[in-house]
Queue: 4 jobs
Job 1
Amino acid sequence: MSVFSNRLKEARTRAGLSQERLGVLAGIDEMSSSARMNQYEKARHEPDFTMVERIAKALNVPESYFYAAEDEAAWLLATFHRLPRSERDRVMQFAREVAGESDVVPWPSIAMLHFSQCDGFGQI
């Protein structure tokens, strides 16, 4: 099975949802939702990213959760996603300190700085 299919089944069962209910919450027609979710969980088909976004929203996990190969990384992604903004900031500050990067500019600021200096195609 693929990482995606394993993570999907894991998140769905933890949420206490049937395949049909998850499919409906993700916007799939009720008549085919169970079959589609089953195909995703059995790795017979993989959804496009728009569907992954809808599934992630229904399960309250980030899209990246479905592609995390390591269990610890998947848990961190899902847990971090569910934290309020103030707690996320605390976790980020702690992680920077542990990594010895406490004086480094936060990631979003670096991305915005780069984007504001380029022509929209990555060229400065």
Job 2
Amino acid sequence: MKSPIFSNDVVAAASVHLSILDDFIATVQKKMEETVNPFVRDSLVDLLANLRDQREGYSLFAAPATTSVAASSIAAV
């Protein structure tokens, strides 16, 4: 199956969004490790799930190299 082709602007924007989401995901994961409050932890788990869903959407439009490298680093955590 052939991959769709997007404009360079769409690919660039999606790649930036992925980078920002990756940074935010890492921050949320760090805060989850630091908290002992169960309510805060559950809230962060929900936030993390939403961020990962958003990340998956942007990965459809981003440059393949950006998507595969970032996805492997996020999946490893």
Job 3
Amino acid sequence: MNLPLGQSAALRANLDAATLGGYIDKPLLDRRDVNRTHLLGGRATLRVQIAPDWTTDVMGLGQSIDARDSQYAGRDAQPRSPATPKCRKVRPRIT
């Protein structure tokens, strides 16, 4: 979306969402599509012309990834039990 804000400023924003995977079933637990991943992200940019030859851009972005029952293996990892709670959502650091 592009939104003019008067003669010298504009806002541009977008939002993205996706659902991936979901092809592994666990019939003994009566669960379907246990490895589905949900992605949600977006960004916004504000541009202001502060003088005839000067512009300023301010941008923000974010993303959320929810991946349940993903399978990871490590050489020295301990086995996980089915009672292990779901992984916490990881939010990226903006520097």
Job 4
Amino acid sequence: MSERLIKLYFTGEQRPDIVDALMQVDNLSGFTLYAIEGFSHRQDRFDLDEQIRGSRSMYSAEVICNDKTFTEIKASLKKLNFNEPLRYYVTELSEQGCIEAN
């Protein structure tokens, strides 16, 4: 079964619900969460502070999973019904592993 890297982008307001939704996916062994700054020409969704700063504080989550788990993740996240879209992209993995110390 091929594996993929799923990268999700979301707001701080969405963070707790997304973390809970990902933690509830049985076949998901874990994920990585990053605080990021999002930049956009469409600043209509930015609050005043973000408009002055020119960026929006956001989060990104990275998940490595197979097709079946990705389907479960999407179903779990779809139930959240956020007002703002939850953006993601998928990258096929050609290789992954662990480098052990000698």
